[in-house]
Amino acid sequence: MPDSDVCVPDAAAAPWGSRLLGSAAESAGMRRVRVQLLLTVPSLIANITGIFVSIALVGFVLPGPTVFTRRLVLLNFVATPLYGALALLFGLWWATARGLRVLRWAIDPDQVPTEAEQVAATRVPMLLMLCQAVLWLGGMAILTTLYGLSDPALIPKFIFGIAFSAIVVCANNYLIIEFALRPVTARVLEAAASRRRRGIGVFGRSILAWTLGSAVPVAASMVVAILALTMDDVSKARLAVCVLAFGGAGLCFGLLLMTQTLTATVAPIRGVRRALRRVEDGDLDAAVTVYDGTELGELQSGFNRMVAGLREREQIRDLFGRHVGHDVAEAALEGEPNLGGVECEAAVLFIDIIGSTTMTATRPATEIVAILNSFFDIVVDEVERCGGLLNKFEGDAALAVFGTPAPLADAPGAALSCARAIRNRLTARAHDFTAAIGVAAGRVVAGNVGAHQRYEFTVIGDAVNEAARLCELAKNDPQRLLTSETTIATADPAEARHWQLGESVMLRGRVTSTRLGRPEPDQLVGTA
Questions:
Q1: Nearest to 498 by CA among 389, 426, 415
Q2: Burial 455-474 (b: 16+ CB within 10 A, else e)
Q3: Of 152, 247, 365, 492, which sits 20 to 30 A from 513 (CA to CA)?
Q4: Measuring CA to CA, which residue among 425, 371, 413 is closest to residue 388?
Q5: CA angle 59, 61, 65 (to 5 degrees)
Q6: What are phi and psi of 349, to 5 degrees?
Q7: 3-state secondary structure 387-403
């Protein structure tokens, strides 16, 4: 039962559905030996078993003249064993030689088979089965002729007894060869993923198992019954022996073939099921080895294509989130995005590098890019930690919003806390430049702005303008961080106590004065 151990905890340990076929990490030489043994040993056992079944049928079960007479001693003990031994040896050599000639490319693990080699490889199970069928038919022709010359009444016994074993053995070996060549089939299907699958298919396997497990024994019993009607010397005891023998053969061989058929069918399904569970757990790197040449191979390759599509979709989703922000991306994916916006309470943080024009003119472009990446790495990290959205990168400046599109219980407090953290990290790590930060809170309009063909999420409102003006003013302030009295007043007291109010100023473009707020000195790095 080749696939009896297909249920394994790690699919990588049995990529072809059974531990008997080894693992993907196994060397090419060891895999070749393993496949050769799986092709040879079960085939020899099946053929030897078939020979003994034929002897039992002809010698003890089927009605007709006995073969155990003095005239047939040479045939019984010389000709028949000699042909059986020669057929086994010749069949082993013939099948091995033809198989190696067709599958020579498979010795090199890196070689991709040509189209002709792919077609030839898919025909190997049928080719090797036909080799065995030829030897069985040859034995039936030779032995039937030799025994028939001695006693013509023996001809039906030999034809029927040998044909029964030949059919069962060849069908069993076909399933064994298909199983043993799964690693080769996997390489063929990998090289030609779009090629139409060859083989008898799941339906054909089921019909084969039914034919050999049920139809052949029943037909054999019917033939025996017909012979009993045409022969006068058939006793009830002999007829009962025939029926019991074929019934037992049907039960045993039917169970064997049905088990082989079902396990060959279940193995790919179990592999897909295990991989599906990995996908359900979030592992989009899951894949199954396509080794079945029937409709189940389509299932395996279809699963791999599905996971590849999910993986591509997740990559696009991740890139989308990196470009516009994960909150904006989630909102866009969950609903139908439209142009326009909604009015809401939010906090805005604006940050800009001081002296960037001079720095750009005096330093190499690659160094400027490295500085900006280091700068934005700190900004993005702190904004996301505080629950905000980095809405825009504007050259050497950035705009972050808090409270939209994802709501926050204390958007002003989150923005103020984020500003302090950014300022302290820049003071501690950035020695090549300084940056000014402005924070404001109030009513804004948040939504998609642009054209129907292309738009972006943005925030518009007085709080945005105020944050930009406070950032501009902070460039000349010793602490490099300014906010407004309104923002501090609307923040949670736990955050507001870290800030102190200062003078009032008239910001550019505004009609009323703004009272400034600064962090308490003990809340900043690098201040006395």
A1: 415
A2: eebbbebebbbbbbbbbbbb
A3: 492
A4: 413
A5: 55
A6: -120, 125
A7: CCEEEEEECCEEEEEEC
Cβ atoms of 455 and 339 within 8 Å: the answer is yes
pLDDT tens-digit series, residues 28-41: 778 888 888 888 88
What gap in Å lies between CA 137 and CA 119, rounded to an integer? Answer: 27
List, as one string, the DSSP characters of 123-144: THHHHHHHHHHHHHHHHHHHHH
* Amino acid 175: pLDDT: 84
Beta bridge partners of 474: none
Helix (H) or strand (E) holding 343: strand 340-353
Is there a contact between 503 and 515 (Cβ–Cβ < 8 Å)? yes
Burial 23-32 (b: 16+ CB within 10 A, else e): eeeeeeeebb
Q: What is the pLDDT of residue 528?
A: 45
- What pLDDT, on a 0 to 100 scale, did the predictor assign at position 454? 66
Intervals of the chain under pLDDT 50 = 1-11, 528
Contact 81, 139 (CB under 8 A): no
Alpha-helical runs (H) found in 386-503: 411-429, 462-474, 485-490, 493-496
Phi, psi of 394 (to 5 degrees): -120, 80
Amino acid in the structure at residue 367: E
Residue 430 token pair: 């950035």
For residue 337, the model assigns a pLDDT of 63
Q: Tell me how many degrees the CA angle 320-326-332 measures, rounded to the nearest 5.
A: 70
pLDDT at 7: 36
Contact 396, 369 (CB under 8 A): no
- In DSSP terms, 518 is beta-bridged to 500
Rounded to the nearest 10 degrees, the angle between the axes of helix 80-102 and helix 28-56 is 150
B/e letters for 169-191, b = 16+ CB within 10 Å, e = fewer, are bbbbbbbbbbbbbbbbbbbbbeb
Q: Is the peptide bond before 405 cis (omega within 30 degrees of 0)?
A: yes
Q: Tell me the torsion sign for CA atoms 240, 242, 245, 251.
A: negative
User: In sequence order, what are the beta bridge partners of 442?
Assistant: 346
CA dihedral 405, 408, 412, 418 (to 10 degrees): -90
Contact 517, 499 (CB under 8 A): yes
CA–CA dist 46, 54 (Å, integer)? 12
3-class SS string, 57-113:
HHHHHCCCCCCCCHHHHHHHHHHHHHHHHHHHHHHHHHHHHHHHHHCHHHHCCCCCC
Q: Which helix (H) or strand (E) holds 190?
A: helix 182-191
Residue with tokens 């089965």: 129
The rounded distance, in Å, linking the Cα atoms of 434 and 354 is 6
Q: pTM of this prediction?
A: 0.59
11 neighbors 275 (Cβ within 8 angstroms): yes
- Cα–Cα distances in Å, from 243 out to 53, 64, 65, 229, 240? 15, 15, 18, 14, 5
